[in-house]
Amino acid sequence: MVELKDIAESIIKGNAPKVKELVKKAIDEGQDVKKVLNGGLIAGMNVVGEKFKKNEFYVPEVLIAARAMKSGMEIIKPILADKDVRGLGTIVLGTVRGDLHDIGKNLVGMMLEGGGFEVVDLGVDVSPEKFVEATKEKKAQLIGLSALLTTTMVSMKEVVETVRKSGLKDVKIMIGGAPVTQSYAEEIGADGYAPDAASAVDKAKELVKTG
Ligand code: B1M
Fold this sequence. Notes:
This protein has helices at about 5-15, 15-30, 35-55, 60-80, 105-115, 130-140, 155-165, 180-190, 195-210; strands at about 90-95, 115-120, 140-145, 170-175, 190-195. By secondary structure, the protein is of the alpha/beta class. The protein has two domains: about 5-85, Orthogonal Bundle (Methyltransferase, Methionine Synthase (B12-binding Domains), Chain A, domain 1); about 90-210, 3-Layer(aba) Sandwich (Rossmann fold). The protein has a five-stranded parallel sheet with strand order 2-1-3-4-5, sandwiched between helices. Helix 7 links the parallel strand 3 and strand 4 (about 170-175). The radius of gyration is 17 Å and the shape is globular. The mean pLDDT is about 90. CO-5-methoxybenzimidazolylcobamide binds near residues 101, 104, 179, 194 and 200.
């Protein structure tokens, strides 16, 4: 029987082939997919995040761990889709104009997908108009904005204003990123804020429910 802590450990070590092997084995053994996701992949990634915060890990380790997580997600995603635990809603996600940081945004996207959302990732340096366009085209219920620079946080305000003016009425906007806070979300009229990728999934679920 595969131990979920071994999957987490392989994520922390950034061992993508091992993660893939263990996840596949756990699923073949009949272990619950959501438990493998939460207790293995996400648990491992949470430790990586903590280590990064404490300066025990640097960017290369985070990237390697994220790649290992992705290799596990590749196995889990189609099963989650089969089980119809996806379909919670569609979220258009991107890093705002002027900002090229995407590691955190990518993690948020992966967690949201794992949590049951359809994610339309627009990448980095995304203009307010592009967010509006994609939201209309994909009929998304949510927009997720990421910013890592104090100088690009203002772009979030522009997105909120452009979305509100665009006629998109029931779309909720969630924001996040290292310099972003709950009070900033309130200040610019965003509907929600999440401090990390795991909370982003909870917040997205909450926003879709109240929508
Ligand atoms: Co840049 N950078 N960087 N950088 N960089 C920071 C952010 C900085 C704090 C470093 C420092 O000075 N100490 C600083 C910002 C200072 C400030 O504004 N207060 C900074 C700077 C100044 C810059 C440049 C201006 C440097 C220069 O060129 N002079 C430049 C700007 C380029 C640009 O964007 N226009 C720049 C460039 C870069 C690289 C390209 C080299 C690289 C980015 C590579 C990439 O992303 N592909 C980079 C990196 C890697 C960093 C640091 C080291 C790490 C950021 C990261 O990936 N964190 C960062 C310093 C640091 O944070 N210690 C730094 C890991 C990631 C998992 O965390 O992104 O916070 P994070 O995401 C978290 C949460 O914030 C949250 O969930 C994630 C997972 O838990 N979250 C959301 C994020 N988005 C969310 C969205 C949500 C909800 C939650 O809802 C939608």
